[in-house]
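batch job 7 of whatever, protein = TTC37 protein
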Amino acid sequence: MSNKEVKAALKSARDAIRNKQYKEALKHCKAVLKQEKNNYNAWVFIGLAAAELEQPDQAKGAYKKAIELEPNQLLAWQGLANLYEKPNQTDVKGDLADVYQKLLELYESGDKQKWCDVCNKLVELYHQEKKYLEVAETWQKLIRMKQEEGAEKAELHQLWKKMIQLLKDSTRNQDNKTGQLLLTAFEHALHSADTVPGEDHQNLYKDFIQCLSKFPHEVARLEKACDDMMALYPSMTYPLEVLCLHFVQSGTLSEKALHCFSRLLEMDTRSGTGIIGFGIKCLKENKYKEAVKSLTEGLQKTNQCPAAWYYLAEAQMKIHEHRNAVLSCNQALEALGTPEGPNLRWKNLAFQLKAETLIKVADADAAEEAIKALEQIVDGSSDPVISALRGQAYLNKGLMDQASKVSQELLLSHPELAEAHALQGFIHYSQKNYEQAEKSFLNAIERKAGIAEYHQYLGLTYWFMCDETKKDKGKALTQFLKAAKLDSYLGSAFSYLGNYYRDIAGDKSRARGCYKKAFELDETDEESGTAAVNLSVELGDMDTALSILNEVTEKARPGTAKWAWLHRGLYYLRTGQPSQAVVDLQAALRADPKDSNCWESLGEAYFNRGSYSTALKSFRKASELNPELVYSVYRAAALEQILGKYENAIATYQQILKKTENYVPALKG
């Protein structure tokens, strides 16, 4: 076949393809290849015809042969791209990307429009594969090409916005290079915006700040972006909200942070983040009750701030609301979810605070939960403070051997750690080894003088040590005073001071004040409440006694606060108010239905009210619960006599006289 015949055959093949006679085209091409086996166009036409005849493998082979012959010719690459783009082609995306890359190379110095078309296709392909770095780098090439061609500012603005759109999901991967390219796209889009300030520009800025907040290492950039947006849009609270949230989550409480919290609340008094910020400020200023109030209110308004739950737990811990603090720690842990980056630090802190709080609850179940919380702390086993907490939890659970082992190891490895000496002190104190406990607590205080608990336990050590040696308890008083000064919310310290002033100093007035303070701080401390009421009565101050009792009974749920109902019921009984006495004594019995003395008092109240039948039932109930209550048996007999049940009355009187021969009221009856 001559050169002329080859050209004619190729022309026939091209015409056949144009007329969709693909088999005919293949015949012509094969005839050419018999003569010229390396004919580029023949291989390209075979690829085209085979593709149309649904013979992809043959088509692919033909195109690749053509490329092998002429690697920098466009036709075969275009044909291969068209083949791979067909819907029935699977698992070829990697190959297609390589083809597009080659086409970009070939178009670069020629057809710019086709270069842009291929570039768009390649970006779309990378985006489908979630190859965000390749998306970013390829799209940047497109923008550079447009810039070199002198594209308008508006067109470039749209291209930067498109890049942001393409990369918006990439922040989940936290790939630093892709992240930097995304942030750069935001900055270019903001600078190329037409209308500034304007609604689109404002929304773009919001998206930029939201994106920055996902990159923990871009703190300076985030702060600058928020400051710049606030300068452009002074009435918008969004950048300030983000900045305040950033300060809360990062644990920063600089002057700038405090200023931002105040400014946000001035602009929007209902801002959850602003209220949380104010609560943290109160916490740092030791205004713990205000902190609890603000943090609780702020958290009701926003759920975007896991760290705020930790701060709330810390504030609750400071005012010894231990159960609430545990619940807040749980909320923090739930809100933090899977710990990554900064969240891991917060999660460790929340587990530690939860364990500390549970140890303060001081029962075996709480101790078990504390041990589990400590086990969740990442790298906690290497932290001596965590080890000391674990030792305390073992002690609370009654695992003395484990607690002692932890204590001994800590004292050897960290002899300067206050917590190690305190743990040893707690162990000695629980074993009533008061002299050793004294040494340990003094060692702990020498290393950390500002811990109220150490002073309180040293005070208790002196108190019980003095019981044994009959010495003066002044040393105990000094330590209780120090504890109360260091922690004005430590109710138990005030209770111990009350014991000292009542039992040792004989100062009823001062003792009453201490008990009252202890009870105000801890309303579950019935012993202090009762002592405050009894001393008020002894001091002739019934108003104070009643105000305490009224406050407790107003808040009490049914079946609780027996001591308060009983005390007030007895007061009403003494002062001739039997109807009120009946109500209060009934409430006391709902809390403890087996209190025989309470039943006896209720019988007396019914009797004074003139309700004889009910009084009789109450006295009988009292004597059933405690047959030794002779007075209740006598009162039942007297009531039977009043009610005309003489035979029963006589039998009851005789029953009393069998036990107590000379019981005069029964003889008279």
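notes: The first helix runs from residue 3 to 18.
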